[in-house]
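step: validate -> pass
step: tokenize input -> pass
step: predict -> running
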Amino acid sequence: MILKKWEDLPSEMQTAEVRPYYDILEKKKWSLICKRLFDIIVSLIMLIILSPLFLILAIAIKIDTRGPVFYRQVRVTQYGREFRIHKFRSMVTGADKGSQVTVSGDSRITRVGKLIRKFRLDEISQLIDVLQGNMTFVGVRPEVPKYVAHYTDDMKATFLLPAGVTNLTCIYYADEASLLDVAQDTDRIYIETILPKKMMLNLQGIKEFSFWRDIKLMFMTFFAVCGKKYEYNKKFMKEEKQANAH
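step: predict -> pass
step: emit ->
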């Protein structure tokens, strides 16, 4: 992928807060090119290999409840561009009319949905988005416009790269739903508490970006899905405490 020139970025991204992250990525052009080539080749191969699983999931979803196979919610990706994400539908049709974050035991989740969420099978259809260039394997998870509206200026630096299928927040916040279980206002808790913590990790990820780091995170995600638990890095905990103190 090729990073746009600074002057060609959306005006809301041409800020002093975004510039340091831009300068870091601008020096890693070859890593960005390798990242996109990897996305195209691997997503195409995986789509071919997993096509039988796609068919099985599609049939199971259609038999379980009425509605489309894919959930095509609007999300935000590189440069603040909106797109419709591909996710195997795990909730009843019209579930997004309420809160757009999910808690464990959510009544909107279907029977098949519980199974595919447990093993993150709802996410594999995002291989389509990766191949199309709307997403990348490793990057900031795409948020809905409702939550993007609450981004601070430095958070907008995450739009320098396409939205991702996985990253550190997917590993450290794998139990995000359980964190929201006790909340009366899930949207407020997500925006005020969880989102800032996740974005701290996301911004750190841009500072440390490299093609090989992406490969490492993909393996970490695989092991996390298989049940391995990763402890929250002490360095991030220290930075989080400092941020909260301010």
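step: describe -> The beta strands are 70-71, 74-76, 82-84, 87-88, 135-138, 163-166.
step: cleanup -> pass
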